[in-house]
Amino acid sequence: MGKKEIYMGKAVFITKCMLAAYILTAGLLLLLAFMLYRFGLSEKVVSICIIGIYIAVTFLAGLISGKRAGKKKFLWGLAMGVAYYIILVIVSLIVNRGLQDVAGNLVTVFFLCAASGMLGGMVS
Fold first, then answer.
1. Which of the 8 DSSP states describes residue 7?
2. Cα 49 from Cα 31, distance rounded (Å)
C-alpha cells in the first residue's frame, strides 16, 4: 500500500469519527432540550450538561481512535479532541456571527475537549 492510500485511509477514518461524534452530540443535545422542556432545568444545569456532553463525546472519539491507531494512542485522542473543538468553534462562529457569545468559554472548552480526547486515547 502506498503512502497516498495510507493517508486517505486515515483521513476517511478521522472524518467518520468526527461525523459519529457530532451525530452523538446532536442526539444528546436533543435529549437535553427535551429534558429542559419537560422539567424546566435551570441555565446553570443546562450549561453543566452541555460541557458534560462535550467531555463524553470527545472521550469516546479518543477511545475509538486510540483503539484503531495502536501506537501513540494519546496523540490520536488529542487530535480527535482538538478536531472536535475546531469544528465546534467554526460552527459557533457561523451561528452566532461573531465571538461575543462564545469568547468566555473558548479556552476552557478547548482544554476540556483536548484533555478528554487524550484521556480516551490513553484508556483504549
1. H
2. 11
